[in-house]
Automatic annotation (TrEMBL):
Family under the similarity heading: Belongs to the thiamine-monophosphate kinase family.
Gene that specifies this protein: thiL
Signal peptide: none
Annotated Pfam families: AIRS
Taxonomic lineage from the root: Bacteria, Pseudomonadati, Bacteroidota, Sphingobacteriia, Sphingobacteriales
Enzyme Commission numbers on file: 2.7.4.16
Record bears the keyword Phosphoprotein: no
Official protein name in the record: Thiamine-monophosphate kinase
């Protein structure tokens, strides 16, 4: 690990598996009364007091899901937790516990794993979840992180993908495409660096989209907002693979069609301008970019008044009968079939 080359480091072989687990988990203080037993036995013991239990898992592999040449380990730990919390939010639930499993190769000193866990604990603290277990193994090659998350919801609050109804409004939180454009920026600076290590990365003024890529936030706040204003989504999914793909999941599973209006898709000005610099269509970045971790959901038309003035929620279309198709209505009024790869897959037209 280059970033630790100039520091005193501790080889993992000095601790052994149990030493490492003990070291990484020694400061855990469980926050939830439902976390009866956390790290330290053969299984965690949890109490959900009559609620429905939500469970989801995501695995991140070095070289596939992250590139350590521009991803600080602390951000990576933070992101590994967020992408999991996002799945519980997407069910309209409250995340409460996580387990974290890691496969680590000997190229990582203890200090690197500590950085990773710093990010993990910061995310757990901020989103009020307990780390209650995991697994630790060695890996021949890259770093592997697998997180499982548990949460709860009342049965009537759970929002599935397959329950959108004709006439429902299609809504999305935050803005889209930023994480993808941020990734393009990081990849470009990496190429420049590899060609000439003397050139410093030029990420000036691009903080927002870099953060969207490296340090995403799950939208627990949106779940809480919807509850507070008395809106139960008729269906919901989180935006991990791009808006188009997620809308198609809802339409396919609900057996419905949709009209999505290009002009309504929320795109931050920095995302827009940087996409243009890269000769990319900002709309396609939003439709097919992915990793935004916003919430896409449908609501009854009668909820329109409760949502129309929410700054963090955009109404981007509506649900139709299946036979009407899945349509993207462009700014000029042309109708395209909505495809998961965008209508001109990143060619910049
Ligand atoms: P077992 O042999 O039963 O799999 P382990 O020795 O792997 O048990 O784990 C001991 C305890 O430490 C368990 O409670 C487990 O959940 C926890 N644990 C192991 N690895 C991690 C990790 N990377 N992060 C958090 N907890 C962990
Ligand atoms: Mg184990």
């Amino acid at each position: 690990m280059d970033m630790f080359d100039n520091k005193e480091t501790t080889g993992l072989e000095n601790l052994g598996e149990f030493g490492l687990i003990g070291h990484l988990t020694k400061n855990i203080k469980l926050k939830h009364p439902g976390s009866l037993k956390g790290v330290g036995d053969d299984a965690a013991v949890l109490d959900f007091a009559g609620k429905k239990v939500l469970l989801s898992t995501d695995m991140l592999l070095e070289g596939i899901h992250f590139d350590l040449s521009y991803t600080p380990l602390k951000h990576l730990g933070y992101k590994a937790i967020q992408v999991n919390l996002s799945d519980i939010c997407a069910m309209n639930g409250t995340p409460t516990q996580v387990t974290v499993s890691i496969g680590v190769s000997s190229k990582f000193p203890l200090e690197a794993i500590e950085e990773l866990y710093d990010g993990i604990y910061i995310a757990c603290e901020k989103y009020n979840v307990d780390l209650v277990g995991g697994d630790t193994t060695s890996s021949r090659q890259g770093l592997v992180i697998s997180v499982s998350v548990l949460g709860y919801a009342d049965e009537q609050d759970i929002a599935y993908r397959n329950t959108a109804q004709e006439g429902d409004l299609l809504c999305v939180s935050g803005d889209l495409g930023g994480a993808y454009v941020g990734l393009q920026l990081l990849e470009r600076e990496k190429m420049i660096y590899l060609e000439n290590p003397k050139i410093q990365p030029d990420l000036e003024g691009k903080d927002y989209i870099i953060e969207r890529q490296l340090k995403p936030e799950s939208r627990k706040d949106i779940v809480e907002l919807l509850r507070a204003i008395g809106v139960k989504p008729t269906s919901m999914i989180d935006v991990s693979d791009g808006l188009a793909s997620e809308i198609l999941h809802i339409c396919n599973q609900s057996n419905k069609g949709c009209n999505l209006y290009e002009e309504k898709i929320p795109i931050d000005p920095m995302t827009y301008d940087t996409a243009r610099e890269f000769n990319l269509d900002p709309t396609i970045c939003a439709l097919s970019g992915g990793e935004d971790y916003e919430l896409l959901f449908t609501v009854k038309q009668s909820d329109y008044d409760k949502l129309k003035n929410q700054p963090d929620i955009s109404i981007i279309g509506h649900i139709t009968e299946a036979s009407a198709g899945r349509n993207l209505v462009s700014r000029t009024g042309n109708v395209h079939e909505l495809k998961a790869q965008g209508w001109n897959a990143f060619k910049g037209e």
